[in-house]
Amino acid sequence: MSTPKGRPEESWSPARLIPVSGIRSTKEQEQRATAALLSVMAVVPSFGKAILRYLKAPAGEISTFTEVRFKDGDGATLIPDGAIVVERGKTRWVCLVEVKTGSSSLRADQVDKYLQVAGREDIDAVLTISNQLVASAEDSPVDVDKRRLKKVRLRHLSWFRILTEAVTEHHHKGVDDREQQWLLGDLIRFLDDEKSGASGFDGMGKNWVTVREAARKHTLGPSDPGVREVAEAWEQFLEYMCLRLRQRIGEAVEPAYPRASTSTKRIKDYVQVLGRDGRLQGGINVPDAVGPITIEANLAALQVTTSVSLRAPKEGKFPKTRINWLIRQLKDVPADLRVDVEYPYVQTPASQMIEDARKDPESLLLPDDPKRQPQRFRVALSKDMGRKGGKGRGSFVSDTMEQVLAFYGDVVQDLREWTPTPPKLTPQDREAVRAAEESRSLVAEPPAIRDPFYRPQQADDPANRPTP
User: Fold this and answer.
1) For the residues 261-275, what does the mean pLDDT come to?
2) Per residue in 411-431, pLDDT tens?
3) Chain center to CA of 423
4) DSSP 316
5) Residue 255 in contact with residue 135, Cβ under 8 Å?
6) Model pLDDT for residues 239-255, shown as the tens digit of each residue
7) DSSP bridge partners of 307
């Protein structure tokens, strides 16, 4: 029997239940993405529940359907891309689904019609899905008549958020059933493929290079063409970075937005700062990290800086002791990491690269007041900005995303916030406590309350002799 030469199957494409080949149009792309998502939601309950949690759907058995049909008020046929039904006992919950892929955006008039149908048919919710990223599932990319929302819940999920939920379930939480795990993995491969039209954030927009160059030449203004488009893309990019980091660590990561802020207000602020200073700023909150990761893209200097800030210890007689507390935590960090030390009532912080700070911690003290205690520390990493458009290698999106992930892994995840030491007993008090414990052990326990008629039995006591 001869041994086959080589392994030709290594160059073959594995069979896929959800293939990306053969997609010939946007409509077919949407149909295949919808069918793939809804079918896996029904077959992998943990993933289905993870998606429906955004809609506050009840627990129960999930059934999914594609291209359902309704009549609008004028008798015309409406065909949402899909529907989800959850049933448990007498409880029945129904949601319509509208899907867009690629660069296609949701249409307000179409979503409004589905909300009308849902209200008339006693349907509970409408879910929209597209590549448009939003800060919260409650934020819709389209404006609809708010009166429609009194009876029907409207929620939006980006394809990248759905991919993130699939990755979280598959890689971090785990799916016990082997077939379900394989099917969810196949959905992940499908959604992560560019051909699926559901691969997420596409880049900073067609005006990115023009805006960046104008900022570099200091000729950019808030009202210039393309500034608002870049500001809107930055809002989505922050959400994209959060979701990508969540895929890596398996925990909820959210943009660090100011309280009570809205997308409209944030984008307006981005436009002003970008047009005036040539900078884009934002932050990311990672659970239990020492603080938000701040990201600043300086288009004028063509640099991206990632940083995190934490308060200095309030213990330690000398300022150098408190500075060393931070330096000891920064062991295996990039050599170009910068350490800033902020002092109360001093506008400019003391700064050093980490290598110089290790050699001479006193270089981070105030020259004119070396006994002043530090208030806060900031560690920062600056890198040259990716120049290309889109999100491929060498682009602003790819290089910034890589920098954020590396900064979290190399620096932030190992930093610990200072916690005060609990008050301690003095040596005299501890000796007194030990002496009291020893004296108590030498003293017999007080007798328990006994029956007044009880007499201890003695061997020669006549009362103990058997009655003849």
Assistant:
1) 93
2) 999 999 988 888 888 888 788
3) 37
4) -
5) yes
6) 999 999 999 998 889 99
7) 294, 380
Q: Which residues, 6 or more positions from 361, have their beta carbon under 8 angstroms from its beta carbon?
A: 320, 323, 324, 327
- Cβ count within 10 A of residue 379: 23
Q: Is the separation of the CB atoms in 311 and 379 below 8 Å?
A: no
d(CA 264, CA 260): 12
- Strand order of the β-sheet with 338-342 is 254-255, 279-285, 293-298, 303-311, 376-384, 338-342, 350-353
**Considering Cα of 297, then 300, then 302, then 303, what sign does the dihedral take?**
negative
Tell me how far the alpha carbon of residue 466 is from its chain's centroid.
Answer: 84
How many angstroms separate the CA atoms of 384 and 404, rounded? Answer: 13
Strands 125-130 and 254-255: unpaired
CA angle 73, 74, 76 (to 5 degrees): 105
Question: Degrees (nearest 5) of the Cα angle 294, 297, 298?
Answer: 125
List the beta strands (DSSP E) in 312-357: 338-342, 350-353
Q: Label residue 408 left, alpha or beta by phi (over 0 means left) and psi (-120 to 50 means alpha).
A: alpha
Query: What single letter denotes the amino acid at residue 280?
Result: L
**Which residues on neighbouring strands pair with residue 279, listed in sequence order?**
298
Query: Nearest 10 degrees: CA dihedral of 233, 237, 238, 242?
Result: 150
pLDDT value at residue 3: 47
Give the sign of the dihedral formed by CA 238, CA 241, CA 247, CA 248.
negative
Q: How many CB atoms lie within 10 A of CB 12?
A: 8
Rounded to whole angstroms, the maximal C-alpha distance in the chain is: 123
User: Which residue, among 102, 130, 96, 135, has the nearest Cα to 114 in the 3D structure?
Assistant: 96
Q: How many CB atoms lie within 10 A of CB 10?
A: 6
pLDDT at 394: 86
User: Rounded CA gap, 69 and 214, in Å?
Assistant: 50
Please report, for the chain, the start and end positions of each structural domain, with discontinuous segments joined by +.
26-196
What DSSP designation does 150 have? G
Q: Phi and psi of 221, rounded to 5°?
A: -130, 160
Tokens of 372: 């002043």
Strands 77-78 and 82-88: what pairing?
Answer: unpaired
Pairing mode, if any, of strands 279-285 and 293-298? antiparallel
Q: What is the chain's alpha carbon radius of gyration, rounded to the nearest angstrom?
A: 32
DSSP-derived 3-state class of residue 101: coil
Cα angle 98-101-246, degrees, rounded to a multiple of 5:
95
Mean pLDDT in residue range 146-158? 92
End-to-end Cα distance, the chain? 102
